[in-house]
């Protein structure tokens, strides 16, 4: 569903920017800059992987091989193309199978990734919001929500009181143990030292993608300047935040609309250039990551349960032949 929705968003961006003009701009792009853009995207992934692996150690998994950890991390990229990225909870299941940690604790890592990334892009958006006060309400609301979650997680009596209220609900009561395991994992991951390290890594990671966006704008003919760099970092960071809050699969639609709209309003770009820049940065980030994740899926059937299914099918065939 996420892939189909993504295709629709791409078509919409093409028509909004005028298909012919947008296509001409893309074809005239300075393609020598593309390796730098992809390199910055890979740097973003590398830094975020460091955070993921650090989190695994924080919940008590010691000596887990980085190669295996990286496989799970990259395999999670396509799961972002689910509503509110809930599909990424599957990473908690994978950790449970590979490291025998409670699934809820693994899901706590996924939640901590999302929240620390949100705080990281808020850090990068701060100067932009000061320069453009119109974005202050959305910025403040996101900051209060994310900081509130972190603060509440560190006040155990308050957190346990809220959990007790939650488990009294008819459906939630069935998951009381998992909810407590999720909280215990969250408490460890949001401790000040761990949170500061995660946000710092995230800030540098998303800064790299912002610089990549700046290079795309330059490659499309924009004059390189410090103002253009600042706008690129702010626009990409704030749009990423908007996409996360939208709960749409991969932020699709919300991120693209935010990037294109802010490029037009803040950077003064025409619709075709804004559309071309938006499509290129999304292909160089979310779609590039999705392709990497699908590549990992292609040689990791165990992650999708295909090996188990193949074994079951083989068993069925053997049973039929025995009869």
Describe what you observe in this structure.
- With 323 residues, the protein is mainly α.
- The chain has 14 helices and no strands.
- α2 crosses α13 (271-298), α3 packs across α4 (66-75) and α6 (103-131) crosses α10 (192-219).
- The longest helix has 29 residues, at 103-131.
Pick out its properties.
0% strand, mainly alpha, 14 helices, single chain, 323 residues
Q: Span from first to last CA?
A: 41 Å
- Summed over residues and divided by their number, the pLDDT gives a mean of 87
Rg, nearest Å:
21 Å
Instruction: Label the overall shape.
Output: globular
Name the helicity range: over 70%
Structural class: mainly alpha
> H/E order of the elements?
HHHHHHHHHHHHHH
| Low-pLDDT sequence parts | 308-323
Strand and helix layout:
Blueprint: H1 2-16, H2 19-27, H3 34-58, H4 66-75, H5 90-99, H6 103-131, H7 136-154, H8 156-167, H9 176-189, H10 192-219, H11 226-246, H12 254-266, H13 271-298, H14 306-322
Helix pairs in contact: 1-13, 2-13, 3-4, 3-6, 3-10, 5-6, 6-7, 6-9, 6-10, 6-11, 8-9, 10-11, 10-13, 11-12, 12-13
Structure described in brief:
The protein has 323 residues and is mainly alpha-helical.
